[in-house]
Amino acid sequence: MAEVINMPRLSDTMEEGTVASWLKKVGDKIEEGDILAEIETDKATMEFESFNEGVLLHIGIQEGETAKVDTLLAIIGDEGEDISGLLNGSTTEAKAETPTEDKTAANTESESETPKAEEALPEGVIVVTMPRLSDTMEEGTVATWLKKIGDTVEEGDILAEIETDKATMEFESFQSGTLLFVGLEEGASAKVDSLLAIIGPAGTDVSSIAKNFAVEGSSAKKEEAPKQEAAKQETPKAEVKKEAPKQQAKAAVSNTDSGRVFISPLAKKMAEEKGIQLNQVKGSGENGRIVKRDIENFTPSASGSASTAKFVATGQEDFDEIPNSNMRKAIAKNLAKSKFTAPHYYLNVEFDMENAIAFRKQYNSVPDIKISYNDMIVKACALALKEHPQVNSQWFDDRMKLNNHVHIGVAVAVPDGLLVPVVKFANEQSLPQIGAAVREYAGKARSKKLALDEMEGSTFTISNLGMFGIDSFTSIINQPNSAILSVGNIVEKPVVKNGQIVVGNTMKLCLACDHRTVDGATGAQFLQTLKGFIENPVTMLV
Fold it and tell me: Are the CB atoms for 191 and 138 separated by under 8 Å?
């Protein structure tokens, strides 16, 4: 008899888990004690062993996906056993737990998906859906396909580059076979779990799968469906935008039209946003096609004219519309949520930077060492946060989390918006180590090569606009942090010292705090400690 395996609770604080990797695949024989999967909890990545024997009949959570404890993880039973009843039951239960979903719609959807769960795919055929590549990702854009229809795909091959709300990431295949169908063209966007591709044995007819997918799926249902839905591996869940024959025809046209610039849709969009003339760009793709990396790496030639404003006739209204990128939409959503849910207040200070300037000059006189003022601020904040864990906290509805480790996010401006790479355990790192980490992350951020784990886990954030000549400003808290520090420019100005007006150097800072976790006095005490480190930087070396 088939046994349902749910997401286990592997730690006392675990509320959800992420499948890091499956060590068994559907159809494999399972012995008691075999390791089924590696599961990432809130504390560690742990091996999860089977307490049942049989054949792995179904996988409910794909690698990289996250689900709550007790969500359907897998089904083990006898080879060929009918598990449609278990799948239908788990789907219905998942829908019943969705508070915003209409019950009638849930019942209708559950009934409509029953034949989907029972309908077996052709042997060896795998439906690949749009993966969730970040914790905040709701939709993705196919930047570049690295495989085309008819190509042989091996496990571990890179299928495509996918643009998320945070970065452009490589998406590798976990199956082997032939790429039979592509559901999204380059530059097209779709929700997470939408049909991305179909892989299977060469020559397999998958047209009926695509047609059923397009007819039976609906965007309204997809938005309401839980991401842990049990049957999502076996059945596509979203609308197919283009069929394979259409995509092949498109490629044929662009390759035979010699008077046309060969360029991917995403590269064309990026070129328009940056005002790059396509005739100046040399394509590195197939048949000289211009792809995303060519636009990112393009530098105007010396002979090229400087960029000028668009010509608009006098008295004529004119505008350009630029579609919002996934990153821009995510920034808008997250900052609006932070601004309107966290009660912000602001504390403004001005520090004397004379000693900091002298300290940096002396420190950089050592060969092969170079630190910036920002590196010094990161280090000073990290040390101050250790003394004031209340500022290094996070708010939850039923509790407050005081972090004893210090992970500082450093805001980096990129063309599409803002990324916040994280310097882990910043209080334990030296100034040169912090400087090297920040420079590396900033470079990766601008080239969209930051890994997800390099952008997650911050406990405090620093935003520095001093290099742009900004004296002072306020920032919106990067939740779930409780505070963010805005750093201005170092300004030479008259100051009063020992009753005398002299030339000095000062810097203004603004600490934005979440009043739910950080009271005014707490924030002020943190700034006093920070002042001691920045105005006497030698104390950071003790």
Answer: yes
State the Cα–Cα distance between residues 196 and 198, nearest whole angstrom: 7
Q: List the structure tokens of 416.
A: 């599409």
**The two structure tokens encoding residue 512:** 């934005």
519 counts as catalytic:
yes
Report which DSSP code applies to 228.
T
The continuous run of DSSP H or E covering 208 comes out as helix 207-216
Q: Are 159 and 128 in contact (CB under 8 A)?
A: yes
SS3 at position 207 = helix
- How does pLDDT run along the chain (542 residues), one tens digit per residue? 788 898 887 765 678 888 988 999 999 999 877 888 888 876 567 778 887 889 999 999 999 898 888 899 999 988 888 888 888 765 444 444 444 344 344 443 434 343 343 356 788 888 888 887 766 678 888 888 988 898 999 888 888 888 877 677 788 888 889 998 888 888 888 888 888 888 989 888 887 787 776 534 443 333 333 333 333 344 343 333 333 333 333 333 333 344 456 777 677 777 777 778 777 788 877 667 787 778 877 876 543 444 567 888 899 898 888 888 777 888 888 889 999 999 999 999 999 999 999 999 999 999 888 999 999 999 999 999 999 999 999 998 889 999 999 999 999 988 778 889 999 999 999 999 999 999 999 888 887 778 888 988 999 999 999 989 999 999 999 999 999 999 999 999 999 998 999 999 999 999 999 999 999 999 999 999 999 999 999 999 87
| 3-state helix/strand/coil string of 151-197 | CEECCCCEEEEEECCCCEEEEECCCCEEEEEECCCCCCEEECCCEEE
Selected catalytic residue, list 28, 42, 205, 519: 519
Count CB-CB contacts under 10 A for residue 379.
Answer: 26
Short-list 85, 31, 28, 86, CA closest to 57: 28
Q: Which of 327, 333, 331 is nearest to 448 (CA)?
A: 327
- Provide the greatest CA pair distance for the chain: 90
Which position among 352, 405, 471, 515 bears the catalytic label?
515
Strand 460-464 with 408-410, pairing:
parallel
Question: Long-range pairs for 45-49 at CB < 8 Å and ≥24 separation?
Answer: 45/20, 46/10, 48/8, 48/10
**Tokens representing residue 485 in the block:** 């520090």
Q: CA-to-CA distance for 58 and 234, rounded, in angstroms?
A: 9
How many residues are there in the chain?
Answer: 542
Residue 530 contacts residue 510 (beta carbons within 8 Å): no
Residue from 4, 327, 261, 291 nearest 146 by CA: 291
Residue carrying structure tokens 């943190």: 526
Q: How far is Cα 157 from Cα 303, in angstroms, rounded to an integer?
A: 41
Q: Residue 245: is it exposed, middle or buried by C-beta count within 10 angstroms (0-12/13-18/19+)?
A: exposed
What residues contact residue 499 under an 8 Å CB cut-off, 6+ apart?
none
User: What is the rounded distance in angstroms from the CA atom of residue 133 to the CA atom of residue 152?
Assistant: 24
57: tokens are: 């009949």
